[in-house]
């Protein structure tokens, strides 16, 4: 069986789209049945989008209601347990992210993102619940110099790695802006399942 041979020069002369197509054609596909069909993926996607839109529709009036009805001052119960518990969750997420990064595990993506979001929340609540004066200054400095920069690294880093992997495997156009880059869906072998 003779195959088509491409020289390095021919590959170099290909457009990015032609290279991505070549990579897709040469890469071994997943074993049958391993990935859900595109139809199943689209159903899950539509369900999740509907769930998010419903959540937004409920949360907007709830937020307005809270803004109008909540008192300016409130004595909170379990204050210490709340903050210590939050910090324990944050430490666990940071540790899981460190372990995933050290092991080069794909768990780096969700744990890094979650840890980054928790740091943003921590900075927000620290600043808003601090007393005026030295307490507020400390909260602002900690947020600006530690929590928010670390959150940026924890959120942007895994997203950048994901982009590099997708580009390397020819799954996305490297020139596409991040917010315009689609999620590559598996191709179905069954023409009836293709959308």
Low-confidence stretches: 188-195
Q: What is the rounded distance between the termini?
A: 34 Å
Q: Let me know the number of strands.
A: 0
Q: What characteristic shape results from the CA principal axes?
A: elongated
Class by alpha and beta content: mainly alpha
Roughly what is the average pLDDT, rounded to an integer?
A: 85
Q: What summary fits the major beta sheet?
A: none
Strand content: under 5%
Number of separate helices: 6
- What is the gyration radius calculated from CA atoms? 24 Å
SSE string, helices as H and strands as E: HHHHHH
What is the percent of helical residues? 55-70%
Give your account of this protein's structure.
- This protein is mostly helical and 195 residues long.
- The chain has 6 helices and no strands.
- The protein has helices at residues 8-13, 16-26, 38-69, 79-103, 108-129, 134-168.
- Helix 4 packs antiparallel against helix 5 (108-129) and helix 5 runs antiparallel to helix 6.
- The longest helix has 35 residues, at 134-168.
- The two termini are 34 Å apart.
- Mean pLDDT is 85; it is low at 188-195.
Strand-helix topology:
Elements (H helix, E strand, L loop, with lengths): L7 H6 L2 H11 L11 H32 L9 H25 L4 H22 L4 H35 L27
Helix pairs in contact: 4-5, 5-6
């Amino acid at each position: 069986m003779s195959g088509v041979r491409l020289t390095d020069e021919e590959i170099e002369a290909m457009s990015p789209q032609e290279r991505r197509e070549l990579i897709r054609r040469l890469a071994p596909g997943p074993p049958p049945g391993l990935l859900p069909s595109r139809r199943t993926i689209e159903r899950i996607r539509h369900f999740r989008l509907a769930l998010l839109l419903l959540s937004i529709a409920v949360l907007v009036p709830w937020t307005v209601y809270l803004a109008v009805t909540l008192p300016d001052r409130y004595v909170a119960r379990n204050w210490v347990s709340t903050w210590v518990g939050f910090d324990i969750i944050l430490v666990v997420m940071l540790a899981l992210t460190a372990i995933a990064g050290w092991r080069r595990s794909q768990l780096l993506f969700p744990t890094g993102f979650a840890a980054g979001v928790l740091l943003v929340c921590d900075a927000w609540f620290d600043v808003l619940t601090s007393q005026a004066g030295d307490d507020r200054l400390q909260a602002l400095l900690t947020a600006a110099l530690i929590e928010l920069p670390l959150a940026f690294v924890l959120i942007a880093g895994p997203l950048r790695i994901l982009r590099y992997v997708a580009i390397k495997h020819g799954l996305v156009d490297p020139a596409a802006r991040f917010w315009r880059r689609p999620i590559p869906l598996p191709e179905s072998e069954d023409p009836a399942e293709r959308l």
